[in-house]
Structure formats: C-alpha cells, structure tokens
Design a protein that fits this description.
Ferritin, 5 helices, elongated, mainly alpha
C-alpha cells in the first residue's frame, strides 16, 4: 500500500516541476520586469510545493513508525495570496493564456488528488490529499480571477467593450 502512495507522490512532484518549468518559461517571455516577476513568483510557489512533496516522499519511503505517521499530518506550506500588477497592453494576451493554462493545470491537479484519495486505504493519506486539494484550490481561484481580469482587458483592447 505504501508503494501506491509513493507513486502518487512521485507523480505529484513531476506535476509541480512541470508547473515550475511552465511559469519560468512564461517569465522569460513576459516582456516587462513586473510581469516576469509575477510569473517567477508562481514558479517559486510550484518549487515550494515540490520540495514539500519530496520531503514527504522521503519520510514515507522509510515506512518507519512515528516519522511515517507524522509525514501525513504535516501541512503543506500555505499558498501565497498574490496581487498581480497590471500587465502592459501588448502582453495581456500572454497573461491571459498563462492564467488559462494555470487554471487547467490546477483543475487537473485537484482531480489527480481526488482520484488518489478514492484509491487510498490510509486514513492519513486521505487527510493529506484533502489538504493538497485545498492548497491547489486556492491557486485555482486566484488564477481564474486573474484570467477574468486579463480577459476583460483584452476584450476592451480589441474594441469588444462595452458589449
């Protein structure tokens, strides 16, 4: 049973690294220092989550008594609440695209943890997956809100407003 949990955590680490790479790529294409810093903050958030999962993996793989039990009850680091700067008009489309992809990545990750929760037989793992779902949901909500802001700005820039 521990092997299944370790496989889930390995995939979760990979998911976070993919997110890191995506946001780092977006930062390089952002066009402005402020936008680049925003995307790098998101990349660092993904790395923070990956580090937490790596630590969890190491504790679980030894499968020894108290460390094993405590591994499941340590809360993931709290996600940061961001206030994003207004993006330069020529980069609004990029911001909108990045946050649209971010929304989908968060939805996929939430679904991944929900499926993992259904499959596990460990109560501690269920609690862990619930915590991870909440953590990812915060990002989902933030990204969806930011996407909507950029979408409205983009529509206005295209002359679609006030329709």
């Amino acid at each position: 049973m521990v092997k299944e949990e370790l496989d889930i955590i390995k995939q979760a680490i990979l998911n976070e690294i993919e997110g890191f790479e995506f946001y780092q790529m977006a930062a390089k294409q952002a066009g402005t220092k402020e936008s680049s810093e925003t995307f790098m903050a998101l990349a660092r958030e993904e790395l923070k989550h990956a580090d937490y999962l790596k630590d969890l993996f190491d504790k679980i793989k030894t499968n020894e008594g108290e460390d094993f039990e405590l591994a499941f009850v340590s809360e993931p680091p709290s996600p940061n609440i961001y206030k994003w700067n207004k993006m330069d008009k020529q980069y609004t489309g990029l911001g909108m695209s990045v946050f649209a992809i971010g929304v989908q990545m968060e939805k996929d990750t939430i679904q991944f943890y929900k499926e993992a929760k259904k499959k596990t037989k460990l109560k501690q793992a269920e609690i862990l997956y619930d915590l991870l779902i909440k953590w990812e949901f915060i990002h989902l909500k933030q990204f969806a809100e930011q996407y909507d802001i950029y979408k409205e700005e983009w529509w206005a820039d295209q002359g679609f407003a006030p329709f």
